[in-house]
């Protein structure tokens, strides 16, 4: 459709008049019956291909609608699905080369024990399914034209943003030398195993070592790095994977004085240092927009809001993506990662990693 026509249509659909006419549901509720990909403002995507590379992962190729603004290799997006009548969203790294083949993007999702969204997608993802998407986010990205040698380290499903980086670099005429360590339980658990081997075989200055931690290999060791790069301080290092792997690279970089050259992306929450005595939990939660009250039980404000029947926006649920940020109008909250207390005045907080200390009022 002509861009000028689309622009005029957007102005109409997002106008105050249309908002008033479609309240309280919003215009998208009336567009969906005609085509679930239609939206006045929201990014949505239709699944075009599904592949299950390993026993516990699913790879989906998704074509976003016209609201998608593209991504940089290494970024993630929130995927939203409806499960038992409730919209749920989680953050997943993009695995495709940036900006994407013909507009399509790829995600690989590893099924997590107890993971609502990952289990749902692994079991039910199919061609034609429409997903909600956010715009791409994240700072775990390559520079525009890297010239310094790169060390990429991935563990398990942490391969997904690294795969996006490798595919993007592979499509360029020239790129910096790349060394990679990939830790995975067994050969059968290696996501993108065959493609990785083919990628590195095409580049004389690229070198790959895959370590099977449950089949004769060991977990991370500084010796693994030293076998690939002569000087850690002379390379830019990117690591994504389990907390123990990331923490080990952080410690090694600090020991060798090159912390500034390390970038990392966690897909699990850091270990909480907050200690909360359940006997001290008290107070009441007031959700002013929904006019609901709840007795504080000490859990995160996100968990308690959902238990009260609210549906606040949420993504990673670990304080990384900031999609759950909302306005606290009064009360003190504790950061569940650090134990730090907030002020008692108005401020924006991340409700997935905040717990009430006494009475708290939220603009939800």
UniProtKB/TrEMBL annotation:
| One term of GO molecular function | iron-sulfur cluster binding
**InterPro entries to which the protein is assigned, alphabetical:** 2Fe-2S_ferredoxin-like_sf, 2Fe-2S_ferredoxin-type, Beta-grasp_dom_sf, Cbr1-like_FAD-bd_dom, FAD-bd_FR_type, FNR_nucleotide-bd, MRET, OxRdtase_FAD/NAD-bd
> What SUPFAM superfamilies does its record include?
2Fe-2S ferredoxin-like, Ferredoxin reductase-like, C-terminal NADP-linked domain, Riboflavin synthase domain-like
Q: Which residues form the FAD-binding FR-type domain?
A: 40-143
Q: Which domain of life is it from?
A: Bacteria
By its UniProt entry, which PANTHER family does this protein fall under? Answer: NADH OXIDOREDUCTASE HCR, OXIDOREDUCTASE-RELATED
Record protein name field: Ferredoxin-NADP reductase
The uppermost taxa in this organism's lineage are: Bacteria, Pseudomonadati, Pseudomonadota, Gammaproteobacteria, Nevskiales
């Amino acid at each position: 459709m002509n861009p000028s026509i689309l622009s005029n249509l957007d102005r109409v659909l997002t106008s105050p008049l249309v908002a008033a006419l479609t309240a309280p549901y919003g215009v998208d509720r009336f567009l969906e019956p005609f085509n679930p990909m239609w939206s006045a403002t929201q990014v949505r995507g239709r699944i075009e291909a599904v592949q299950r590379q390993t026993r516990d992962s699913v790879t989906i190729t998704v074509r976003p609608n016209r609201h998608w603004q593209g991504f940089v290799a290494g970024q993630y997006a929130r995927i939203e699905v409806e499960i038992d009548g409730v919209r749920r969203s989680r953050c997943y790294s993009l695995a495709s080369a940036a900006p994407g083949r013909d507009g399509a993007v790829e995600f690989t999702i590893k099924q997590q024990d107890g993971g609502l969204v990952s289990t749902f997608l692994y079991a039910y993802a199919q061609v034609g399914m429409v997903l909600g998407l956010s715009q791409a986010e994240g700072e775990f990205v390559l520079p525009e034209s890297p010239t310094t040698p790169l060390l990429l380290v991935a563990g398990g499903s942490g391969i997904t943003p690294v795969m996006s980086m490798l595919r993007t670099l592979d499509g360029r005429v020239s790129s910096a030398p790349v060394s990679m360590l990939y830790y995975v339980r067994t050969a059968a658990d290696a996501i993108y195993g065959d493609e990785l081997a083919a990628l590195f075989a095409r580049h004389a200055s690229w070198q790959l070592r895959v370590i099977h931690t449950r089949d004769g290999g060991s977990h991370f060791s500084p010796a693994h790095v030293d076998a690939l790069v002569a000087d850690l301080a002379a390379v830019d290092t990117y690591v994504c994977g389990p907390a123990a792997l990331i923490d080990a690279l952080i410690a090694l970089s600090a020991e060798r004085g090159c912390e500034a050259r390390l970038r990392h992306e966690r897909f699990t929450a850091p270990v909480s240092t907050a200690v909360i005595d359940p006997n001290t939990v008290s107070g009441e939660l007031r959700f002013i927009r929904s006019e609901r009250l709840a007795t504080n039980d000490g859990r995160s404000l996100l968990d308690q809001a959902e238990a009260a029947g609210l549906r606040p926006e949420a993504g990673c649920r670990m304080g990384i993506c900031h999609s759950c940020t909302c306005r606290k109008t009064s009360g003190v909250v504790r950061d569940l990662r650090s134990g730090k207390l907030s002020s008692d005045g108005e401020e924006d907080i991340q409700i997935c990693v905040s717990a009430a200390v006494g009475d708290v009022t939220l603009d939800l």
